[in-house]
Structures are given as C-alpha cells and as structure tokens.
Amino acid sequence: MNLSKKNSKSIFSRPKAKDGQLNKASGLSALLKRSSKLISGKPVKREEVYVFANQLAVLLDAGVSMLAALSILYQQTQDARFREVIAHLQQEINAGGTVTKAFSSLPNIFPHLFVSLIRAAEVGGQLPQILRLVSHYLQEQDKVDKKLKSAIVYPKFVFGFFMVVLIGILFGLVPKFEETFKSFGSELPAPTQLLLDFSRFVSDNLVFGIFGIVAFIISYKRFKKTDAGRLFFDKLKLKIPVVGDLTQKAALSKFCRTLKILMQSGVPLVESLDIAGETAENVLFTKALKNIKQGVIGGESLSKQMNQFAIFPPMVVKMIATGEESGSLEKMLKSISELYDTHVDTKIAGLTSIIEPVLMIGIGLIVVIVIFALYLPIFNMGNLNFN
C-alpha cells in the first residue's frame, strides 16, 4: 500500500471488508477468547508500544483509516502477543467503540497517560501528531530506564560471582584444609581457626540459613507491596548517598517530560498533574503531586505549590515560575527534563566507573584474607622446620 496517498475518509471511520480487517471466523473466535488474558496478563515490552504508536501515526497521516491501519500493523508485527493486542483493538473499534475506549480496555499495556493523550487527540482531531509525541515520550523514557538498570547490572553480576566463589571456598576448599590441619596436632593461628569455625557454623546451620533467607525474601516482597513498605523504601532510595541523588533527578526528569507532553497535547493542567502523579515511580512524588493538584484547583500557581515540597529543588521551582510568567511553561519543562537527563547520564557514567574498582578491590581483599588464613599454618610449619 502506498502510504503517501491521501484517503478522504476519516481515520476513525470503519472500513469495508476489503480493508483487510480480521473477520475470519476461526481467527476471530480465538482472538476474542484471548481478550481477557490480555487485560490481566503481563505488560508487553515498552519498545513494542512506542514502535506501534509511531507506525500507526505514519499510516493515519497518510490517510489510512484506523481499522485498515491496525490490520496492516497486525500483519507486519512479529511479536505474537502484540499481534493479539492489535487484534483486540480492532475488534473493540469494529464493535462500535471509540478509539479511546479500545485503548483504555488494555490498561496494563496502554497506561493512563497514553489513553488520556488519545482522548485529547479524538477531541482535537490531531491523532497522528499525538501518537508521534507519545511514541517519542515512551522512547525517551525507555532510554532513561535502561540506563538506570544497566548501571546496576555489572555490580549484580560481580557480587553474584563472588558469592558463588565464597560458597565454593566455604563448602569445598575449607573442609579439605581442615582435615589437613587436624594431622598437624598443634594449635592453629587465630585467623585460620576463625575461618574454620565460620565454615563449620555455616555447614551445620545450612538448612536454617536457607529457610531464613527464603523467609526474608518473602517478607521483603510482601512488605514492599504494602503502602507502608512502598513509602519506606521510596524514602530510603532518596536518602542513600549518590543513589538518592540519581533517583531524584531521574524522577524529576520523568515528571517534567510527562507534564510537558500532556500539556502540549491539550490536556488540562489539573488532569496532567493527576496523570503525572500516577506515572511517578516514587510514592513521595505521587503524594506531593496530589497535594499540588489540590492547590492548583484552589487557584494557586504550580510553582508556588511545588515550593512547599523539598523533593523539588529551588532551581526547578524557579524555572517553572519563569515559564508560568512568560507563558512558556511547556518549553521550560522540556529544558528541565533535558537538563536532568544529562545529569543522570553523567551520574550513571561516574557511578559505574567508581563501583567497578571498589567491587574488585573489596572482593580481592576478601579472597586474599581467606587464602592467607588457610595457608598461614603451612607457612608457620615451614618456619618451624627451617629453624
């Protein structure tokens, strides 16, 4: 199909059968049965969502109707689960529902922000432009999230490797050395005796140790899901040196990026604050934005309300106040987001360069201490024989 050819039909119109919608009986019945699984199932990759949004924008901008565009994307999509998502959207629209209703029926795949932008686009008639905006937003946020995750991948790997080596030493190497030391018939040096006692203690209490670790992990996960748990850990994240600063800057960047795209798409400020609070991944930011929203409803300015919460730095508050006064709030929000994105990139690069040598030195020291403790009695015996 030539995408450059304009179609006089509305992008929201329902095409005829020749448009290629999924209307074959066997495929349709199977897809309808899977709809409930899509609603309750795991979310798809964010990359699938923003690529889909961008491709849909291209097709709609070329004049292709909504259902025809979904049919084309269904045929082109490689991911089986996302093919079901597209088919579900088509069935919802084909049944007479609006585009907004179709997307809102899959909240675990298309978040509130996505649906709100689609709703604004339906009202304003600029769906292709809005889809491009949301695609760019999701892509930028995906980049930031991946950078944050990549910053802890290597430390996790090194720590896991160290734990495997330590377990091998405690349960494999140390017991063999203990048998050798018993044949010496003499008192062992304090470091060696301490290492042997520790290895024996771990071996004797292995079952209780495993049970304790499993119980701790289960309790941790359950507590983290509670309101008190989320609040506790979100506060802790902001207080940890280096990590806290990185977490705050990433959250501020996401807040400004979210608020900017919502306001740029015509979503009112109050609703934008509500959605920004929902998308925030920190309870402190969510609570602050709820209070800020109430203040804005009461007639206060956004910057004045933000100034009451310490999680918003004075620089951010001043920049937003300047944007409000000059009528360029969206532009200022974009500048703040880009500024903090740069800070996050710099912090991650610096953190990675620091963590790597610290971990290697720490692991090296522990290994040296263990080897020293194991070979100390042998060295002592060598000295005695030499004397």
| Oligomer state of the chains in this structure | single chain
Structural class: mainly alpha
Helical segment count? 16
CATH overall fold name of the largest domain = Receptor-associated Protein
Largest sheet: none
CATH H-level superfamily title of the largest domain: Type II secretion system (T2SS), domain F
Integer-rounded radius of gyration: 29 Å
Order of helices and strands: HHHHHHHHHHHHHHHH
**pLDDT under 50 segments (min length 5)?**
1-32
Termini Cα gap: 93 Å
CATH class categorisation of the largest domain: Mainly Alpha
Write the layout of secondary structure elements.
Blueprint: H1 25-40, H2 46-61, H3 66-76, H4 80-94, H5 99-104, H6 112-124, H7 127-182, H8 190-204, H9 206-225, H10 227-239, H11 243-264, H12 269-279, H13 283-297, H14 302-306, H15 314-326, H16 329-386
Nutshell version of this structure?
The chain has 387 residues and is mostly helical.
Architecture overview:
By secondary structure, the protein is mostly helical. The chain folds into two domains: 17-110, Receptor-associated Protein, CATH 1.20.81; 138-387, Up-down Bundle (Receptor-associated Protein), CATH 1.20.81.30. The protein has 16 helices and no strands. The protein has helices at residues 25-40, 46-61, 66-76, 80-94, 99-104, 112-124, 127-182, 190-204, 206-225, 227-239, 243-264, 269-279, 283-297, 302-306, 314-326, 329-386. Helix 2 runs antiparallel to helix 7. It is elongated. The model is unreliable at 1-32 (pLDDT under 50).
